[in-house]
Structure formats: structure tokens, C-alpha cells
Amino acid sequence: MQFRTQILISKSNSPIDYHSKVLSMGSCFAENMAEKFDYFKFQNETNPFGIIFNPVSIEKLFKRVCQEQWFEEKDVFFHNERWHSFEVHSDLSNADRQELLETLNKAISETNKQLKEATHLIITFGTSWIYKVLEKDEVVANCHKVPQKQFSKELLSVEVIQKSIQNTIDLVQALNPKINFIFTISPVRHIKDGFVENQLSKSHLFTALHSVLKTEHSKLNTAYFPSYEIMMDELRDYRFYGEDMLHPNQIAIDYIWKLFSENYISENSLSTMLEVDEIQKSLRHRSFNPESEQHQKFLAKLQQKINLLEKKISHIKF
């Protein structure tokens, strides 16, 4: 007997391996998956502009990156003793305007290079709700704690999201025609918008994304990973959530990663993943007697394993 429903996932025709170069952008769930890629020592870059939730802001950043549209002084503003850009996350904000501009433009330059070399691009959409700064009537990626009266809040229409996703695909493919896209909808619920409003937001993302993915133009090199569906259906219990009851906890993240790796990572990489996992666990081991002969032998054996793996795959470093 089955006591839960399971999501059927199609295996990728272009799986990720240790030669692949992965770039991830989007919501905080993108960071959760990136931590797994980092742990298993895949070649992986994540959110060079910080966490971004809505598809229009993601598109704007890809346009900057693909066309190398540099940030200028008009693109930043001063608030609460720091300089910010409405296009990026507050993690990049800086007390010095010039340093912020240099950081942002360095991110454009480096991400452009990474995108040209990337084999896989993972994009995670979080919400259809957006804020527009009234002064410029522009969608912002982050409000940076600027007073709410300076913004209007809107729900992106399915048509706008659809166009934005297609624009993102077109921009990236013009730079790197061979790249493989993996899209997903974040399983994190944005309850601050309201329960009904969150469902409406997610439904707009689903409708728009799947409308794009089923077109002949976009079927090539695009895939959908059902992280939201796994969380809502297979893991439909609050024991799989963090303390806020909104974000998936580590058990849920581990399970979603397991399903992702079974379907999107090549079988010939699984043995290497096991080796990496064994080394990572050994590195975290804490001895009761670090000076003992037994522990020194353990360290010597561990170093031997590390040397062999780093020699086999040059980009792996512990």
C-alpha cells in the first residue's frame, strides 16, 4: 500500500555532471539547491545579484548581463546611510557609492563570462507580486526598507510573466545557444501577501511558465523541475517546514535534492558524489583525542582520498 502520492519526474536528456558549469538565479530556494551543488563540489555559481523573486526583475538582470549594460550613478540611491540599487538585493548595498557601482559592474562582467561558459541555467521563480517605485514607475527587485508609500503593489498578469520568461530565454540563448534551462517554482509560500494572494501569485507563475515551455520555440533545451509540487503533495505535512511554517526545512531540502539528483544528475557522477560525501563527513568529524596515533592515521588516510579525488577532477578543492 502507498500512503502518499508521488510526483513523476522525467529524467533529463542533458544531465549535469562534474564537467558541467551551472548558474542558478532566483528566489531563496535557488540558494538551498546551490548549497547542495557546493557540498558535492559541482561547478556552480548562484545569485550574483542576490536573491530575486519576480520574473520581471530576473529578466532585467539578464538583459544587463547579456548586453553588458553597466550600472551608472543614476541607477543607485542613498537611504539609511547606504547606497542601494532597486535592481538587486540589499546584500550588495554599500556605504560607498563608487564601491557599489564597481561591485555591480564586476558582477555583470563575471556573470556574462559564466553565462557564456555555462552548460545549465537554473531559474527559480518565487512570486508574481511586484512593487513599483512610484517616482520612476519601475518594477523593483528589493525595496531596501524605503517607506511603503513610495511604492505601488501589483500582481503581474500571466501575459506579462509569459513575455518576461520568453525574453529571458531569448536573451540567454543569443549569448549561449547551447545552454540548458531548468525552471522551477519556489515551494516557499509568501504568506505576507495573504493565503489566497499567494495561491493566485503561484498560479500566474505556473500558467505563464508552462505556456512558454510548451511552445515549439522553447521546447529545445528547456525543462521543468516540480519542486513546488513535491513540497505541496509528497511532503504535505508541517514536520517538513521550518519554524516559520513557510520555508522547507533541511529534511525537505534533502528530499527535494534527492529527487533532483536522481533525475537531473548523470549516473556516472553518482560514484563521485559518494566519494565527496564521504570526505565531507570525515572533514566534519571531531576527534575526542586529536593527538592520538589513531586520529593521525585517520587524517593521513583522509588526505590521501582528497589528493586522489582532486587529481581526478581538477576543479574539486577541499
UniProtKB/TrEMBL annotation:
Keyword hit for Hydrolase: yes
Keyword Hydrolase set for record: yes
Domain GSCFA residues, every copy: 21-260
GO MF terms held by the record: hydrolase activity
Keywords, in A-Z order: Hydrolase
Organism lineage string: Bacteria, Pseudomonadati, Bacteroidota, Flavobacteriia, Flavobacteriales
Name of the protein in its database record: GSCFA domain-containing protein
Record EC number: 3.1.-.-
